[in-house]
């Protein structure tokens, strides 16, 4: 195997595509997933299945109770997940405060421990739900912090690069890229509501369905009747 890579693996379509990209680059895969007490926790089962599909060297699952912070429909059952808006540019109630900052911090520590040179995160600034921690400005700022934060950089001069291969792709382009690499999209889940099948109406489902339509491909996961 080549260099080692840590991949933030939620179990969704974008993180699965990042796994496929890192695998195609010949990198040894070290996915990291998070049980942050999200209502759609079945995504962790999807993440386990994807990690097993790629024969990951190690799959780290971190438990962190972001529901204690609250303020998000993804962690607070008292806040309804809204009907989706695929054109959204405002910050919706499904935003989890500082989630990517926290997740990348864990991933950076994991990368330092296993000697990884890369950390992949499937953020996107084209088709996204208005999340501020998906923007290129945030990633650039975190990279500067990462360059100053680790013993790997301070003592060894070894840079851990934050990789965002999906940053400027539409959802359709992401899906086409993953399809080229045989990404196992049938193993993924994207629904924010976390039912046994995808709802087809939340932001995440609508973006996913629109992406498959743009790509001219069939979405292999089941949806509530009549939604796909």
UniProtKB/TrEMBL annotation:
InterPro entries: QueC, Rossmann-like_a/b/a_fold
E.C. code: 6.3.4.20
Protein's name according to its UniProt entry: 7-cyano-7-deazaguanine synthase
Single GO BP term: tRNA queuosine(34) biosynthetic process
Binding site for ATP: 9-19
Cofactor requirements of the protein: Zn(2+)
Binding locations of Zn(2+): 191, 199, 202, 205
Family of the protein in this entry: Belongs to the QueC family.
EC primary class: ligase
Record Pfam families: QueC
Subunit and partners: Homodimer.
Cofactor: record remark: Binds 1 zinc ion per subunit.
Keyword Ligase set for record: yes
Keyword Mitochondrion: no
Species lineage: Bacteria, Bacillati, Bacillota, Negativicutes, Selenomonadales
Keywords assigned by UniProt, alphabetized: ATP-binding, Ligase, Metal-binding, Nucleotide-binding, Queuosine biosynthesis, Zinc
Pathway membership: Purine metabolism; 7-cyano-7-deazaguanine biosynthesis
Function, in words: Catalyzes the ATP-dependent conversion of 7-carboxy-7-deazaguanine (CDG) to 7-cyano-7-deazaguanine (preQ(0)).
GO molecular function list: ATP binding; ligase activity, forming carbon-nitrogen bonds; zinc ion binding
Catalytic activity: 7-carboxy-7-carbaguanine + NH4(+) + 2 ATP = 7-cyano-7-carbaguanine + 2 AMP + 2 diphosphate + 2 H(+)
């Amino acid at each position: 195997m080549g260099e080692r890579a840590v991949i933030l693996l939620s179990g969704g379509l974008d993180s699965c595509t990042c796994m496929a990209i890192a695998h195609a680059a010949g990198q040894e895969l070290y996915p990291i997933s998070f049980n942050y007490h999200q209502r759609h926790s079945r995504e962790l089962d999807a993440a386990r299945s994807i990690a097993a599909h790629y024969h990951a060297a190690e799959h780290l699952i971190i438990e962190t109770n972001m529901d204690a912070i609250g303020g998000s429909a993804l962690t607070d059952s008292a806040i309804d997940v809204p009907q989706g808006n695929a054109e959204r540019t405002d910050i919706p109630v499904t935003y989890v405060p500082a989630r990517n900052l926290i997740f990348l911090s864990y991933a950076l520590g994991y990368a330092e421990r296993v000697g990884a040179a890369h950390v992949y995160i499937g953020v996107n600034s084209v088709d996204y739900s208005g999340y501020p921690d998906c923007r290129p400005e945030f990633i650039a700022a975190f990279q500067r912090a990462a360059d100053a934060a680790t013993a790997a950089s301070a003592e060894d001069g070894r840079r851990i690069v934050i990789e965002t291969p999906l940053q400027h792709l539409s959802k359709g382009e992401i899906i086409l890229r993953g399809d080229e690499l045989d990404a196992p999209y049938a193993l993924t889940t994207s629904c924010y509501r976390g039912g046994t099948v995808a709802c087809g109406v939340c932001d995440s489902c609508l973006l996913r369905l629109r992406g498959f339509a743009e790509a001219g491909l069939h979405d292999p996961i089941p949806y509530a009747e009549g939604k796909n």
